[in-house]
Structure formats: structure tokens, C-alpha cells
């Protein structure tokens, strides 16, 4: 068959085939005629369902946001009111001493009460120091409790990583963590917790300064922030103590608040006094009980008056040591045994420092310590024509170790015996 005839035959066959109705082959007019009646219904139903769902979703989201905003706002306002009420009332811990056993120290009480009483324009922040067991914390708590309003008392925990929680508890501050949508939104608006670049203690500290500004503008006087046991910060978180000290100076410069640091004599006092921020600081030392106060203390604890002088000569006016001795005496222990136990304790502490290699160093320290109330390393005369640098460094090291063992104490840029017990032992041995 010729090629032309074959091509015509093929076209004829295809022309006789019935057409399939598809969107690609139907003419536009036929497509509209066949599907025109069903498509509008499908389209309208589909979009009506989707639009209804969208409206429900929009209403739900807007409602959740509105409720969360209302919750966050109300919670924030309640928190602000609660924090302000706490500052107005003050957070002053109770004194764990019976009134009948409390020994009055009028001069110390008056000085501490002046420090923690909010005033119009304070001139200094304060550093209260005293030997361990001198009663400074007890006296400070008593002063804070007496003054009451406008005083925030923060007790630094031994584990300084918990300082932020202790500070937050003192002012009633809460770290908001998102437990649900409302809490998450509250945190989103007002801050969920400490930012990554800030330490945990900084949030309650900044909040306190904000509250202090409100308190001063409302009442015309500056609140007081007492930080007890600052020794722990000086030992483990020196940078934190330095920031707090700078903040204390700023609080005085801006007439915002008064800070009072309470610490033991020694490293903390040296650290604070060595900073430029101490230009607005003032040091106050809480000493031991005097003779009349010692007698009052022993009488209130029902110690036999016949041994009052012996007890005083043994431990002096150190409140903590007096309490321990009185407890042992009231338990029926003879005074001679009590005294022997105290001496053995001192001997044990000195024995951890003194050995045959530094015995001559200890003897030079002993001569200086027993001849002066406060002495320095240069007062320890080693019995040699010339003292080498190595020997002098050994002397300084021994002094520091004796301070750690509470045999000596740092005071007035020098050293002294920690208490009468250590002095008595060294005088007898």
C-alpha cells in the first residue's frame, strides 16, 4: 500500500474513535455543562468547613492570649504588692535566745540599731566584724527585729551557690518557671528566670534595688539590706562580695539603700577594707563581754558564783565559749575537767600546725603574742643574727595556719590570740 494511502487510512480510523471526556480533551463549553452543577457545591462546602475551622482557631488563639495577658498582668500586680508589703514590714529573723538568758549590751545594741534604722540621707554603709562566737549575729538579729519595717535580712548559706535562693526568700522574690501556657506567657512578659548571662542571685538583688527606689520615693527614707555571714562569700565567691560592696557604695551615692555586712574578723575584713568602694564604708567591731556582763551571763545560767572568776579567766567574755562551758558545768562536769578539755582542744589545734621543723618559728610567735595584745610578723624575733627570706615566709605561713585553726586572729593589720583559752594554754606551755 502506498505511504500516502496508509497515512489517510490511519487518520480515518482515529477520526472514527469516540472521544473520552477529560479536562484536557473536552471543549470548555462541554466541560462547564457536565461539571457545572456539582463543582460549586463541592467548592462551597469545602471552603465553608475550612473557614469555620479557621475562625474557631483564631478565636481560640485570641482568647488564650487575652486570658494569658490578663493572668500575667494580675499575677504581676499581686507579686509587686506582696513584695512591697514584705519590704514595708521587714524580714527580721527571730532571736533564738530566751529573753531571760539574753545579756544586755546597751552600747552595742544602740550602735547596731542606728545602723539598721532607715534614714533620709545616710552617709555610709557598714561592716560589722567580730570574732566567731562574739554574739554579733545574735545582736544584729535583735536590732533588726526591734527596728522591723524597711529592713531586709539575708543570711548567706555556707554553700554559696544557694545565695540567690536565700536572697530571694528574704525579699519574697519568686523565680517564675513556665509550667503551663499562662506561666509561659508570664515569663515571656515579665521574665521567666535568671538569664543565661546572669547569676541566680542577681535577679533578686536587682529587684531589691527596684523596691528600694519605690520605698524611698514613698516614705522618704532608705531601706536597709543586712548581709550576715559574709565570710562565706569572701571565701568561695569573692567576686560576688566585690559586686555587692560596689553596690553598697552606689546605694549610698544614689541615696537608695544602706547595706550592712556582718562578718568575722580576718580575711573578710581585709578584703572589704582593701577595695576602693570602702571609701563610703564604716567599720564597727563587736567585742567580747566585759566583766559585769560576764557575771550577768553566768548568773542567768545559774553557774556557781564561787567559780565565776575561774570561768572568766579561762574563756574571757566570748559568748560562744561561755555558753559551752556553762552547759558542761550545768551537766555536772567539774570545772577542772572542763578546763582540761579546753586545753586539750587548743593543744590539738596547735599540733596540726607546729612540728619539729617549725618549732623555733612557733616559739618566736609565742614570745610576741604573750607580750603584746596585737602583734605583727616583724615582732616575732627569731633568735638568729640574720633572718632569711625563706624563714620569714615560713613565719608568715605559720601565722596564717594558726589563724585557720582559730589559735590566732587577724585584727588591726596584725595578730592576736583568738580567745583567752588559747592565751592561757600558751602562757602555761
TrEMBL record:
Annotated SUPFAM superfamilies: P-loop containing nucleoside triphosphate hydrolases
Any Pfam family: AAA_22
Residue ranges occupied by any AAA+ ATPase domain in the UniProt entry: 122-288
GO molecular function per UniProt: ATP hydrolysis activity
Family matches, as InterPro entries: AAA+_ATPase, AAA_22, P-loop_NTPase, Sigma_54_int_dom_ATP-bd_1
Residues in coiled coil: none
Gene3D superfamilies in UniProt: P-loop containing nucleotide triphosphate hydrolases (3.40.50.300)
Protein name: AAA+ ATPase domain-containing protein
Source organism: Rhizoclosmatium globosum
Amino acid at each position: 500500500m502506498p505511504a500516502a494511502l496508509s497515512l489517510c487510512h490511519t487518520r480515518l480510523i482515529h477520526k472514527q474513535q469516540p472521544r473520552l471526556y477529560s479536562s484536557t480533551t473536552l471543549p470548555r463549553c462541554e466541560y462547564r455543562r457536565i461539571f457545572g452543577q456539582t463543582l460549586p457545591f463541592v467548592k462551597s462546602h469545602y471552603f465553608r468547613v475550612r473557614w469555620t475551622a479557621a475562625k474557631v482557631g483564631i478565636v481560640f488563639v485570641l482568647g488564650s492570649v487575652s486570658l494569658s495577658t490578663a493572668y500575667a498582668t494580675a499575677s504581676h500586680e499581686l507579686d509587686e504588692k506582696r513584695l512591697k508589703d514584705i519590704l514595708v514590714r521587714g524580714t527580721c529573723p527571730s532571736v533564738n535566745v530566751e529573753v531571760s538568758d539574753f545579756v544586755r549590751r546597751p552600747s552595742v545594741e544602740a550602735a547596731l540599731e542606728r545602723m539598721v534604722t532607715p534614714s533620709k540621707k545616710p552617709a555610709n554603709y557598714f561592716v560589722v566584724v567580730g570574732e566567731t562566737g562574739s554574739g554579733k549575729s545574735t545582736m544584729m538579729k535583735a536590732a533588726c527585729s526591734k527596728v522591723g519595717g524597711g529592713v531586709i535580712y539575708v543570711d548567706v548559706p555556707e554553700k554559696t551557690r544557694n545565695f540567690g535562693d536565700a536572697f530571694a526568700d528574704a525579699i519574697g522574690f519568686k523565680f517564675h518557671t513556665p509550667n503551663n501556657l499562662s506561666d509561659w506567657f508570664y515569663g515571656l512578659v515579665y521574665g521567666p528566670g535568671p538569664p543565661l548571662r546572669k547569676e541566680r542571685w542577681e535577679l533578686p538583688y536587682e529587684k531589691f534595688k527596684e523596691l528600694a527606689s519605690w520605698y524611698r520615693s514613698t516614705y522618704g527614707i532608705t531601706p536597709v539590706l543586712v548581709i550576715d555571714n559574709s565570710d562565706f562569700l569572701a571565701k568561695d565567691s569573692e567576686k560576688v562580695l566585690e559586686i555587692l560592696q560596689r553596690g553598697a557604695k552606689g546605694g549610698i551615692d544614689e541615696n537608695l539603700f544602706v547595706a550592712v555586712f556582718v562578718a568575722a574578723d580576718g580575711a573578710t575584713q581585709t578584703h572589704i577594707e582593701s577595695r576602693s568602694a570602702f571609701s563610703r564604708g564604716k567599720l564597727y567591731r563587736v567585742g567580747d563581754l566585759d566583766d559585769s556582763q560576764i557575771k550577768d551571763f553566768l548568773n542567768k545560767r545559774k553557774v556557781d558564783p564561787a567559780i565565776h572568776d575561774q570561768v572568766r579567766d579561762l574563756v574571757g567574755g566570748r559568748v560562744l565559749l561561755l555558753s559551752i562551758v556553762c552547759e558542761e558545768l550545768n551537766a555536772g562536769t567539774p570545772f577542772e575537767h572542763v578546763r582540761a578539755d579546753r586545753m586539750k582542744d587548743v593543744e590539738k589545734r596547735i599540733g596540726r600546725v607546729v612540728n619539729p621543723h617549725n618549732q623555733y618559728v612557733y616559739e618566736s610567735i609565742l614570745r610576741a603574742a604573750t607580750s603584746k595584745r596585737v602583734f605583727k610578723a616583724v615582732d616575732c624575733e627569731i633568735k638568729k643574727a640574720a633572718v632569711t627570706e625563706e624563714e620569714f615566709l615560713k613565719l608568715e605561713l605559720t601565722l596564717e595556719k594558726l589563724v585557720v585553726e582559730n589559735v590566732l586572729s587577724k585584727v588591726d593589720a596584725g595578730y592576736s590570740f583568738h580567745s583567752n583559752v588559747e592565751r592561757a594554754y600558751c602562757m602555761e606551755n
